[in-house]
Amino acid sequence: MSDRTQKRRSLRASRIPVLRAGLLGLSVALLLALPASGLAKSESAKKDQLEVFSWWTGGGEAHGLQALIKIWNQQHKSVPFKNETVAGGAGSNAKAVLAQRLASHKPPDSFQGHAGAELLDYIKAGQLEPIDSVYKKYGLNKVFPQQLIKQITYKGHLYSVPVNIHRANILWYNPAVLKKAGITGAPKSWSEFISDLKKAKAAKVIPLSLAEQWTEKHLLETTMIATIGPANWAALWKKGGNWSSPGVKTALNRYKELLTYTNSDAASLTWQDASKLVADGKAAFNIMGDWADGYFRVDLKKKPNKGYGWAAVPGTSGVYDWLSDSFTLPKGAPHRAAAVQWLGFLGSKKAQDTFNPLKGSIPARKDANPKLYDTYLKWALTQWKSDKLAGSLTHGVVASNAWNTDIDTALGLFLQNKDVSKFQSALSTAAKKRAG
Ligand code: GAL
């Protein structure tokens, strides 16, 4: 029993006889009873456990986390894992819930935050503890690639432990549907892509399945990278980035055209629904991050290259539109010591090689065992070593939450009015306001 628990128990024990004696009358008894019940409440909040906040609830998301929880609970019997997930892909609901918790000083012990600009938001708001000592204690200083370390460091201090690398620019497809529609393999160029979408339409399947708004931003992001290339993409997120360029205009026009090949009920679907349309042979293509590999393979039990196929989004071969899920130590974490252990565990080879083969991501650590990874992930592991990098917009690398919100608003309007020049100028205005 911890010292703290012992103290609380003796405190309560010392109150019980006072109440039982009834010497002080009902009002006094009530007065004493109130703090006692308050104590019981805070005691449950402080109960030894590990509260971890994420948005990994659904298909393709939960299995990796569940596997980690199992190991954690076996190794920390007195500090059980409390899974505080909030459903909704890309953290579409979770981030708002988290913001409220942090604002009211009720942080979990650790929460999911993307490496890059998203993490910086939390750091700048003073919500995170630096965790250099965790890196030192668990020998993590040299295990992650330098470009990733840069994205989780602020003013010389480390702020999170990255658990994976995901790739956003993947075109998933159903090989049987392609064959039936007369499409010979995944398209490589944009013009091939459009002509394949036409063939799929003629074959009476959904050419490109799409879901709720964050997936529409995901599609926009990959279309932009395919059109302007990774260097111009990176420049857009710096001060003075040229959002009025002809390249951006071409990308937005391509995006507008792509939308004409998508399902009309997109807004009411989750990313899993849109992926399933491909798996079920109702859609030919879907553009999604590689968590879809986890979903196809682990949840839907589809065989790589048979039940589902993949390629880089046309025009992005050799480019890794990357993002990384990382975990943090919030200031005021109710079970700080457990949180430190959790972060150390997440950084371990064992945790990363357990989580990622299920999640559909490659490990953030450089020393993973490639044998543990399935067909798609083996491919991703080699691509990651040689590809040029482009940071994800939708998944927190290049733009703050506030900038993302401005883009969401502009995109929401565009999805209604389909006015490319208004959209481009709204994006430009957002950049002027937020870059820097
Ligand atoms: C991303 C996250 C991934 C995956 C995806 C879909 O933002 O980094 O791990 O969960 O959302 O929800």
Number of strands: 15
Give the low-confidence spans: 1-44
What's the overall average pLDDT, rounded?
Answer: 91
Structural class: alpha/beta
Strand content: 5-15%
Question: What is bound: which ligands?
Answer: beta-D-galactopyranose
| Proportion of residues in helical segments | 40-55%
Query: What is the first-to-last residue Cα distance?
Result: 51 Å
Cα-based radius of gyration, to the nearest Å:
25 Å
Basic shape: globular
* Count of DSSP H/I helices: 18
List keywords for this structure.
52% helix, 436 residues, globular, alpha/beta, binds beta-D-galactopyranose, 14% strand, five-stranded mixed sheet
Question: Can you tell me about this structure?
Answer:
The chain has about 425 residues and is of the alpha/beta class. Helices cover about 50% and strands about 15% of the residues. It has 18 helices and 15 strands. The protein has helices spanning about 5-20, 25-45, 60-75, 95-105, 115-125, 130-135, 145-150, 175-180, 190-200, 215-235, 245-260, 270-280, 290-300, 335-345, 350-360, 375-385, 400-415, 420-435; strands spanning about 50-55, 80-85, 110-115, 155, 155-160, 160, 165, 170-175, 205-210, 285-290, 310, 320-325, 325-330, 360-365, 390. The strands form four sheets. It has a five-stranded mixed β-sheet, sandwiched between helices. A four-stranded mixed β-sheet has the order 14-7-12-15, sandwiched between helices. A four-stranded mixed β-sheet has the order 9-10-8-11. Helix 3 links the parallel strand 1 (about 50-55) and strand 2 (about 80-85). Helix 3 runs antiparallel to helix 15 (about 350-360), helix 10 (about 215-235) runs antiparallel to helix 11 and helix 11 (about 245-260) crosses helix 18 (about 420-435). The radius of gyration is 25 Å and the shape is globular. It starts with a helix and ends with a helix. The model is unreliable at about 1-45 (pLDDT under 50). Beta-D-galactopyranose (GAL) binds near residues 55, 114, 289 and 291.
